[in-house]
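Protein record

Derive tokens from sequence
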Amino acid sequence: MAFHETKLPADASTVQKVGTWLNDRFPSMGVFYKAHLSEYYAPKNFNFWYFFGSLAIVVLALQIVTGIFLVMHYKPDAEKAFQSVEYIMREVPWGWLVRYMHSTGASMFFIVIYMHMFRGLIYGSYRKPRELVWMFGCGIFLLLMAEAFFGYLLPWGQMSYWGAQVIVNLFSAIPLIGPDLSLWIRGDYVVGDATLNRFFSFHVIAIPLVLIGLVAAHILALHDVGSNNPDGVEIKENLDDKGIPLDGIPFHPFYSVHDVMGLGVFLMIFAFIVFFAPEMGGYFLEANNFVPANPLQTPAHIAPVWYFTPFYSMLRATTTQFLLPMWLFAAGLLWLASRGKALRTKVIFAAVLAILGVGFHFLDAKFWGVLVMGGSVVIIFFLPWLDNSAVKSIRYRPGFHKYIYGIFVISFVILGYLGIQPPSPIFEKLSQFCTLIYFGFFLGMPFWSKLGEFKPVPSRVTFEAH
């Protein structure tokens, strides 16, 4: 195909000339710009909750940039890692700022992601046709957890060292392959220099590459099926004579400018934390992590960073005494699921209960704790197939559904708080109760999501100019 150069009028501006020159030589860029920005039509009724998707991209970019500058001075060596972090903080010009931006960015990333996922939860953004978009998003969340865990060891402080020791040792509870698996992850018989180098490689190279690919897949899949909205109405079902959604507006410039406002508010909060409270009272950076790692001195209380604590709390809640309530809970759910089913299905459910009972008897509670902790993340992937509600958005669901969502959120926050606190009998019972609520929300969703009187969903989005 011969090269064709677009002719411009003599009075064309410099911007037009540069844009045309680029488009003639790189037409795919123009196609991409139209498909994902200027001609990507998003629902016109986006609200506050829709800031967090773009904020997540900004924080990801911030983490990559600050991480690059940190790697310039960091040494992944068990003898020098802590000193290199201190060197960054004390000697490198503006090194303290870059380090605090990176550590604060990690916590802010999870805040943004949790808010983004909650928005998808209440507005049904995981429902058809966005199942794959949701699964890509859950994969991003899982990778972020791995990225944060691997990065947590790198400062080589007391909490970094002992936190990694505890988490890696959990894998040894897996039957048959557990000891070999934990040895492979550590690269040695104890957390040491080999572990630090492995975690550094995963944190800096392997996971970020996969993460960027998943983010791209998440956005491309979203733009293929279109964005959801607070009403749960598919705007592509109402088109004008040009094939443009009647309730859609171009993402650029309308939402790109709109998101700048949310970004401005976010950056003010972010800057305040970085300059005035980078440790956030020990929630973002623990005091023990300002002490060099000492394999011979165990901290009085080992707890992960706040964004891991809900899942860590579920791990601690799974004790030998808790296995019977877990079995009864599973029996109740399977009984509900078997009602009206064929005899063969009931036999299969009974066999599952019997296998669980045998497993609870012969396998250590530590293994079931690891299974519960992992299952609490994996179960989110299956949300599109657990929800049997007649509508997507919480706006048109029965009133009691809002209370169920509220109880779920409160129990999740309580689990997060309990994961930071030292173990106690009362906290243990409370965390067990909240763990049952967490799993009950998802596993009971096929039943409770169908109940109640649903409100009629409008054929077009509801919108008031502001």
